[in-house]
Amino acid sequence: MRNFYFIAVLGLLFVGCSVDNDEIVNEEIGVADVTVCDVTAGADNSITLTNEYVMNNLYTPARLERYFKRLLDEGVPTDGTFSPSMESLILSYQDFNFQTFTTVYTVGEGGCTDFTELSIVVVEKIEEPSTCFIGDDIYQEVENKFIQENIGNDPVKLKNYYLGLLNDEVPLNGTFSPEIATIGNSYLRDNYQTFTTVYTVDFGDCTDSVKITVKVLPACAGEDKFVTRTNSFVQNNLYTPSRLRRFYLRMLDSGVSVNGTFTPSMETLIQSYQKDNFQVFTTTYTVDEEECSDSTKLSIEVIE
């Protein structure tokens, strides 16, 4: 009797455990049964069009639908639905042209869908962007030799040089402060300096300015040089190509590279000296490096 009762109790315990386990299994299955939805309709988009453009291009439901689909992000399916429909939007447009026409575009099916809002704002005229900006500040470096050969003391050429540094399409009827004449006078007093002027354009309803800075650099081969030496000095000191070369290099301005070339060569100059001692021996010294290509004339006049 005691054994039978014990067996009966065990049976009830097993039945109870079986029910609990089934519930746990069912709950776990329910959690795992989740559908992953990767459909996307993209971001909302809006565009502003003139009434004239809409009348000439979006006058049928088919044309309007194609235009709305062009507003979709790249890769969004084009087989979705619009609400309200194109026909409804056209009817609304016919009631009143100048408004915002918005439709909701939906893609996907069943419980896996996404939507985006697409809008066309119809206006009478689209204002042009402001033309008030004439560019960022300008910095230019130029060799003094270029200024001397191409501009000199001509204020018209100097003005044209500054105007040529402006961005394309910038009006050329603006004003300089300080004026170009002031810059030219300052250059005559000291070539090697930085010249800055502010160029301003008045558009009527707005103005804009740009700062133009030009730094004048010495020619990288230096200035031309001319010296006089006696025939006795030349015979005693410059009688070999290497000695003559060193003398010419000492004539260069301080800081000029000594890796340039001479034309004519030292050998050619010595041969010319042997034919006629008393003359001017001129060679062109050229520096041709990554940041500079320039030449200077070096001359030795031999006298009695």
TrEMBL record:
Name the UniProt record assigns to this protein:
FHA domain-containing protein
Stored PROSITE patterns: FHA_DOMAIN, PROKAR_LIPOPROTEIN
Q: Which residues form the FHA domain?
A: 201-268
**Which species does the entry assign this protein to?**
Christiangramia sediminicola
* InterPro entries named in the record: FHA_dom
